[in-house]
Structures are given as C-alpha cells and as structure tokens.
C-alpha cells in the first residue's frame, strides 16, 4: 500500500466525521492498542494483516462477533501451503446461527418485485420460518453433508431455504430461474441434491414465465431427489405446478412447531457449492466452507463497506451469482437486506433508484453494466431523487470505467463512496474493494483487501507495482475453496489457480497496482490481446470506445492472422447510428489518441448484441472460439446464446 500523497485528483474524500465513526477506524485503534502500536492508518493495517495473519484473523473474529460453541485451538496451520493451510482448527460454529443474531423486532429482509409487490420479515420471523423449514428438511432425512438446491428467484424463500439448509449442516447451491434446463442440469446434476426448491413462475420485463416444463425436465435428471418443494410466487401460474410437488408454504406452516437448532460444525465444513461460468466446459463445482465465508464476508462488510445494524443494504443480483451469497451475509451485521427480483428497468429506468428513497437504502450495490446503462439513458438521479440516506455505491461484475465514476459523482450523488470491488466466485469474496477512510480515484478500486497479499506478476513472475500483469495472491486466506466437487486428487483445483506458480494463487485477471495503492483491472488475462507480442487488456479499449455516444457496448478479441494476432472490435450501436467509414475512423482515432497505435483494431464490425453470461459478464473467449471456427458447446451458460451466431463466418474477417 502506498503512503505517498497522490498527484491524481480525488473524486471524493471521506469527511473527518465519517472517518471517525467508521468501523475501520475503531479496528485500527484496537489493533494499535492490543497488537501493534505501529498500526495507525490503513496502509500500516494492511501490512500488519499480511505479516501477522494469526493476530489479524483472530482480531477479525473478535471484532465482528463470530458466534461459536467452541473456540479454535490455533488460528492457522501450514500458512505457507496454498492450498493446504488449515484455519481455526478445533472451532465449531454454524453459518445460519451467525446470520440470525439481529434484533428480533428489526427488519431482516424486504422483498421488492418488479410488479410492485412488497414483503418483509423481521429477524424473529426469519428465525422462526428457518426453524420450521429446517424441521421439515430433517423429517425428510436431510443430514450433514447432503446437498440441497434452489432454482429460485431472489426472494425470502431462497434465503429461508439456504438458512434452513446450513442450520442442519447440509450444503446449499442455487441457480436463478433464467438459467436454461441444460445449464441447471450441468450444475445440479454433478452434486446430486436430495431436495430441490423451485418456483412455479416469475416476472421479468412485465411478462410471466411459467416453470413447470423446465422443473419437470430438471427433476427427471436428478434421480436422488427426495422431494421437490415449489414456491407459488406467481398466482397466475399456480396450475403449472408439478403434481407431486410440495408447496413451500406448507413447509413453513404455523402449524409446525420448531425451535432453532444449529448444528455445530468445523470451520471448513462445506456451506455452499458455487459454479464457474461454464463457458469453457462443464462448470466447476467450487465448494466453500462456512467459517471462511463468514469471516471473509464479515471483514468485507463490517470494515471495508462499513455496514452495521443501522444500515439497509441492497445488491442487484440473482441467486446464480456469488454476490447473492455476499449480500445475504449482510444479515450477520444486523442490517436490513433488500431483495429485488425482476428487470431493473421495469416498469421504468429508475425502478432501483426509486427503492433508495422508498426504503432508506444506505448501501446500493450493482454492476458496471447497470451504471453504464443509466448513463446511456441520460438518467440523472441527483435531479429527480433525494438519495439522502445513500452513503455507499458498490459496483462489480466488470471494470468500472473512469467515465462511469464521473457519471456517478456528477449525475447520481456527489457525496457518496463509490467502491468498485473485484474478486470472484472462486474466493466468494474480493481481492480489492472499498474503504471508508480513503479517497476515490477515477477508474481505481480503492485498496487491496485486508489479509489479501495481492501482487501483480510480470511475464517473468516477478512482483511489480505500477505495471500491468497477472493478479496473484502470495499468502493463503480463509475463503479459498475447501475443494472442488468430484475432484478426488485435487488436480482440477490445482490446475485452476496454481498452474502458473505453485503455492501462488493466480486469479486470471490482468491488473495494475497504482501509486495510490489502488487497483485497476484491465480484463481477464486469458482474454488479453497480444498483437505483435504486446499484451493489451480489453478494458483499455472498451474505456475509449464506449465514450462515443453512438456505441452502446463493445467486445474485442484477438484473431490469429498471418502468423500474428490482430485486434477485432465488435460494436453494438444505438438504433439511429450506422457504422459507416466516418464512425470507424472516429473509433480508431479515439483509441489511438488515448492509448497507443497497437490498441487500434484492425477490423471494426457492427453487431446487434454482445453475448454475456447469466451473471452479466461479456464472453470474449466464446466469441474468439466462434470467430476461429471452433464449436462452443456451453450455450446454456449464456444469457443470450443467440447473439453468438453473429460472429460465425463473418465475411470481413476472411481477408485483409
């Protein structure tokens, strides 16, 4: 972490009052008094967290109030092993118990549907319904280590089902209803769940989507199912329930009497199974432990995001993205969690912005794509909304461009902490994220996460600062995957992160640590362009191209050409724009003037849509495969697989 003053102008700086009342300040004071008097600010705290991992992670446990029935014999063994470090051996805890410690009368969940529906649960009601559903699952024979799956929208039922599952010590895994049948089977078919929670239908964009046919196909592919439990979310689709399913409402009926019963399990006991995108093969089943997930999320929510019992936290996500798991962990702080299901632009472009004022949201989480869409639509919330309660905006999913930082501070709210955060499903958390003590600089993630020994490696695997390279982590951390499902010798796990360097986590992002101590992500390293042997991050091109009013979105790939690689840029344009020679030259000039001549694409081609995963990430590798005449077998991993056909046999790519 840099301690020098920056010559880059800050877009925002925290007030003295905000700094003083933050949990990060209190934590620094605690470490300075109890462990190391040299810890006086964030850079010194980050250094302490890397050099003294035992003291640091034990302090996180204490400071965030982890509930356990047995304390650990030691904080960590084999810290130099990655994978292989053993955290908090001997401790016993339960994730659901830790998430249900809020004040009984306080709102725990507020659900908002795109159709205007609203439902809420207090912590007491959430605990009660979790206990009832847990009782039902136990009666079915669900035991420690069994898998329970959810094919559900982002509503209270998904949260209750997850909490009931984890209270038993079973393993929760979920997909959102917009996943296709094959995409769900590719995931759940590997883990063989005992129980499947599903929904009879859902709303999106003003339409109702019935689920009976999909559910029946999925159930037929899951031979170990004991029961199918269906949430009747859409009354109009009630008749479309499979005949032998059980209504969710019956499983939490007030006639069921049950007290909370939280199985006390080891720190690394499996909690969640998450999935890789599946764009390069059958999705990897990534198993995350309860203790590591809880401790890492507590650190990120309490310290980096400054969430506490007085906060109302929202993240636009589905149950198929790790940000859902991250959002639900906000319950551990005693905060109120807002759940939204539907199209974020229905019935109006300000649907989600409206919720900030309606519900008093203090932390608003979204994606770079959403902020870009607001900007493209010239939405100016600062002129139409109060946003008085809003203190933090979080963004992830793809790099947040400097122009989007400017948009937020000019058109959304000038006094707000805009935190671009980055990590991944692989670690169910972040490598770099926000900080209530530090300034915000355009295009930068504010800081490296506490306890995360992030280093950037050059082509010779040397650690560099203010140079681009592979994002890596040099030390073990608690939220590393426990293992991959169906990977008995661990070879797939090792190949995923440690192929480049043994005992060094290589994440697959192309990034740079800045002189200010922040981080800039340039895209996936496996999608890095390499014309003439010079590595170029795709985000460097997107940043320039998407400043043009005519361009909605773009995607760049490297095409093998005449023994080298040339850059091909595809652009999606606004309806009234045409990719004529004048616009092509403007795009090239914009890129050349603000990057280098090597960044300028050899070919620029218009398309109507850009393919992306269900979680919203554009898929350069899939486009590259199609352009090179290779097959792409995993279309169910995409939200819009039909978009790929535009990239097949493109005439412009057959010649100079």
Task: Please describe what this structure looks like.
The protein is α/β, with parallel strands linked by helices and 656 residues long. β16 (312-315), α12 and β17 (336-341) form a beta-alpha-beta unit. It has two domains: 93-520, Rossmann fold (3-Layer(aba) Sandwich), CATH 3.40.50.12780; 532-653, ANL, C-terminal domain (GMP Synthetase, Chain A, domain 3), CATH 3.30.300.30. The protein has 20 helices and 32 strands. The strands form nine sheets. It has a seven-stranded mixed sheet with strand order 6-5-17-16-18-19-20, sandwiched between helices. A five-stranded parallel sheet has the order 8-7-9-12-13, sandwiched between helices. It has a five-stranded antiparallel sheet with strand order 25-24-26-28-29. The model has no long low-confidence stretch (mean pLDDT 93).
Descriptive tags:
20 helices; 7-stranded mixed β-sheet; globular; 5-stranded parallel β-sheet; Rossmann fold; 32 strands; GMP Synthetase, Chain A, domain 3; 2 domains; 656 residues; alpha/beta
Report the CATH C-level class of the largest domain: Alpha Beta
- Distance N to C terminus: 46 Å
Estimate what percentage of residues fall within beta strands.
15-25%
Taking the sheet with the most strands, its summary is: 7 strands, mixed
The unreliable regions are none
Number of strands: 32
CATH superfamily of the largest domain: ANL, N-terminal domain
Give the overall form: globular
The count of domains is 2
CATH topology heading of the largest domain: Rossmann fold
- Compute the number of helices: 20
Mean pLDDT: 93
What level of helicity do the residues show?
A: 25-40%
**Strand order, sheet with most strands:** 6-5-17-16-18-19-20
CATH architecture label name of the largest domain: 3-Layer(aba) Sandwich
